[in-house]
Write a structure and sequence with these properties.
By secondary structure, the protein is mainly alpha-helical. The chain folds into two domains: about 140 residues, Ribonuclease iii, N-terminal Endonuclease Domain, Chain A, CATH 1.10.1520; about 70 residues, Double Stranded RNA Binding Domain. The chain is built from ten helices and three strands, in the order αααααααααβββα. It has a three-stranded antiparallel beta sheet, covered by helices on one side. A hairpin with a 6-residue loop joins strand 1 and strand 2. The radius of gyration is 18 Å and the shape is globular.
Length: about 220
């Protein structure tokens, strides 16, 4: 594992409390059976902070965009695929603590980036966090690719366009060990149209279910 001082240099921020940073870089699989904290709570906070900062930036710099257009742009900028790209750019995977049983870091990298944002916010303030986020997201804010909006957002747009109730996601099952779980999720629209799919996280399973339902709708 690489020394975190290089990560702080990469994001141009030095933590006052290194425990916040260490927590943000610790996956739950690493802390199993111990009192060590993992990044899940910081991920929750970072997700909200990121959403607010990006939404505010879009609102201020897209004066002629409608609410729907702003929502699409926000969805692209905070989706997991964008998060994974930015996480890879700062090589966050080199600083993560996780169990050797973990086979893929794709989802973990995105979650850890949100946790890192939460840790920066706790360690500093809103303005400092905003400065760091806007630097990391700079090229993505300039080149918003709406064709890459995640399936959950596209399914929600379809429901609004066709005057349907918003999608409801239901967990059907969770199997496998804690370090490598499998989730099966069902998505329902108006209780009569539904599709189920699996994923290695709830979010991935929901995305896969939405993608599957969108395909079924388009094939009708």
């Amino acid at each position: 594992m690489k020394d975190v001082k290089y990560l702080m240099k990469e994001i141009n921020y030095s933590f006052l409390n290194l425990s916040n940073l260490k927590e943000a870089l610790t996956h739950s699989s690493y802390s199993e059976g111990s009192n060590n904290k993992n990044y899940e709570r910081l991920e929750f906070l970072g997700d909200r902070v990121l959403g607010l900062i990006i939404a505010n930036e879009l609102f201020l710099n897209n004066k002629n965009s409608s609410e729907g257009e702003l929502a699409k742009k926000l969805s692209f900028l905070v989706c997991k695929s964008t998060l994974k790209k930015i996480a890879s750019e700062i090589e966050i995977e080199k600083y993560l603590k996780y169990s050797s049983r973990i086979k893929s870091l794709d989802g973990i990298k995105a979650n850890a980036l949100e946790a890192l944002i939460g840790a920066i916010y706790l360690d500093s303030n809103f303005e400092d966090t905003k400065t760091i986020i806007l630097k990391l997201w700079k090229k993505y804010l300039k080149n918003i690719n709406l064709s890459k909006i995640d399936p959950k957002s596209r399914l929600q747009e379809w429901c609004l366009k066709h005057k349907k109730k918003l999608p409801i996601y239901k967990l059907l099952s969770k199997t496998g060990p804690d370090h490598e779980p499998k989730f099966q999720i069902k998505v329902m629209v108006d209780t009569c149209t539904f599709s189920a799919a699996e994923g290695n996280s709830k979010q991935n399973a929901e995305i896969n279910a939405a993608k599957k339902l969108l395909k079924e709708i388009s094939d009708q």
